Amino acid sequence: MLSRLRLFLYSLGLLLSAVVLIVGIFGGAWLLAYEAYDWLRTGHWTLHSIVTLMQMDGDAWARDPHDWIGLHDLLSAIPLFLLGPALAAVFARLLREGPPAEPQAGREVEQW
Question: What is the dihedral of CA 60, 61, 66, 67, to 10 degrees?
């Protein structure tokens, strides 16, 4: 019974990881294409960064930082179109790990 539950949970994680992988790659490509389109249309490159996403969410720190200025500058320099593929790469790495191994009979399983 435990092995069926582990297989189900692994399959569910695999499915969710695949969705994040696909959305991350295509979302990043779409955002880059939109920024390029906007640049071709206006002649001005508008960088959408992680801070831009935070500003859309209504975060006051993202709009007017009074503290952690260096972190704000760092997050402002990271293009948002890289966030999706970066998350996709993390999930792709998790997909390569494979299902968790079954505990062997007679061996004590380490508890956290």
Answer: 150
